[in-house]
Specification:
The protein has 13 helices and nine strands. It is of the alpha/beta class. The chain has a seven-stranded mixed β-sheet, with helices on both faces. A two-stranded antiparallel ribbon has the order 1-2. A hairpin with a 5-residue loop joins strand 8 and strand 9. The longest helix has 15 residues. Bound molecules: S-adenosylmethionine (SAM).
Length: about 290
Amino acid sequence: MAEAKTLGALLSWAQDRLKQAGIAEGALDARLLVEHVTQTTRLDAMSRPERPVSDTERMAVEEAVTQRIAGRPVHRIIGHREFYGLDLRLSPETLEPRPDTETLVDMVVAEARRLGGEDRPWRIIDLGTGTGAIALALLSVLPAAHAVGVDISADALATARINADMNGYGGRFETCQSDWFEKIDGRFDFIVSNPPYIREEIWRALAVEVRDHDPRRALVAGDDGLDAYRLLAAQSGAHLATGGMVAVEIGYDQKESVTGLFVDQGFRLHKAGRDLAGHDRVLVFVAETAREQT
Ligand SMILES: C[S@@+](CC[C@H](N)C(=O)[O-])C[C@H]1O[C@@H](n2cnc3c(N)ncnc32)[C@H](O)[C@@H]1O
């Protein structure tokens, strides 16, 4: 039981507990948990470590530390996570957005700049939007763009809607519950997606923090991990505006197989991007013979 009576003491207590439990990044996690519970900032901990903490705050930090030691990811406990400078709420059926996915956002923004500038009214569709991470990050940089966030999960779409409103992009973001393109009409300048791409057998071997806390439907895509790409490759041409692009996140070893699927459907690989660890992570395709005329 934490005896801490001040913010500084509570933070030290949480850090010690997580360190003793062998939690990697324990110091950072302790800070995030304490800040979340006490609604304080890093600056508060440094400038006002003597700030008193209430019994309720102390008990809530204890509960959060217990959950963290039990393996629950820190952002799941807090219920939100930062992505591309946006604060995004999480819910049971949303994936925690990963920093690697920012590579996809950067690449699409670069293409938008190259093709005509940030200020164009770009039409974007984000398939498998989850928290809305990719779509909302793009809207944050492209001020006249409009995005449709598609997901099969109603829970994810409700969360994406809250995130859009909370971050000030609600007026340019709409949601659609659909099995990929099934309920989608119209054409888009950018079709973007971070679909599920993990093979069934890999899923079983994943770290418990991913397997037990990220929704399976957000991650697993059949025996070879390519089910979603097959569908996106086959159907994107019918939804792409002239000169448009398809940008997908991939698993580190999927560049060749995913490129093959898109090439077979009349696309050409325009660019490939690597993540922070240097793995192939994003592929951008343009239509060559894929049906792209309106
Ligand atoms: C890897 S997560 C990506 C979430 C978010 N875009 C991100 O990058 O953090 C994949 C998303 O695809 C959604 N999804 C899975 N199957 C789907 C389907 N058949 N149709 C539409 N979305 C689907 C999941 O619910 C999940 O939100």
